Amino acid sequence: MKKSLLTLILIGAVLGSIQAQTRKYVAQFSHMQGYFNPALTGYEGSTVRGFVRNQWAGFEGAPKTYFVSAEMDFADITGNSDPLMADKNAFGINVLHDQYGAFAETELIGNYSARIQISPLTSFRLGVGVNYNMIRLDGNLLNPDQPEDPRIMQYLNGFANMQVLDFNIGGSITHPNYYISYAVHNANRGAINSGDIFMERRPRVGVFQGGYRNAMTDQLAVATNIMYRHQVGLPDNIEFNFKVLMMDRLWLGAGHRRFYANNVQLGMVFPMVRIGYVYEMPMARSYLLPNTTHEFLAVFPLFRKNIRESKDEVLIW
Predict the structure, then answer these.
(1) How many CA atoms lie within 13 A of 297 on its CB side?
(2) Which domains, and CATH codes, for the chain?
(3) I need a surface site. Which of 93, 113, 192, 204 has the fewest CB within 10 A?
């Protein structure tokens, strides 16, 4: 019964109206700023990063998400220490693979960002992303309670594939201690597509992100972040987190996704990598499956180590 219920939820999410799109949740969204807003590509310098998210762990057909990205800030290549003279361009590649029930979705996003220096520490950034999205439906895994539904019958016991080319745009104001940003995903609403058309158009998604961090003492720093997403046909998504970094090595934190889930966070910072883990618990009033979610993160800096270069620097968002 539970498997059938989950299958129906996922079928409705993809084969239903254009408003019923699947939404990618990332509890550690503050470490994935460039994925949500192309203008934030390279904000933390040149890095390779990735995460694995196992949602509703232990439930057959539950979503599993895999992500890897590489960001290159050209200022790291030129080696110019003066921010007013350094190169002000960055490029990034993001690959996200999501499996949920009978569906497998892969996103390939190429981001470019450019920044204008407002002051020695503050920049205004603009970015654009090209998003190539591939969705595969395995009809052999469909188990509908109403197989006579014509929207579902055509996909039973077969395979279907859809490809969508779209664009993301964004802007942000950044500082070593804070950032505010806004981006629009699916700017062309999925008008460029091919294959088996599950959805004629895709809704635009507005994404606001903001954060503040500060070194309280030599041994203690804090960071807090918020994200708000708006999409026609779905409830607004609001989530935030708060983290405490101790001795530049260990961070502890907590997060909340409004009406949906709470989480606790644990991470370690090493010179060549920072790693994070999230244990997420759905809220009873969210009516979601009761299983917990696990999320693992790793971020590798390419041209510098995770070591403070000034007493006011904070090593995580």
Answers:
(1) 21
(2) 2-301 (2.40.160.40)
(3) 192
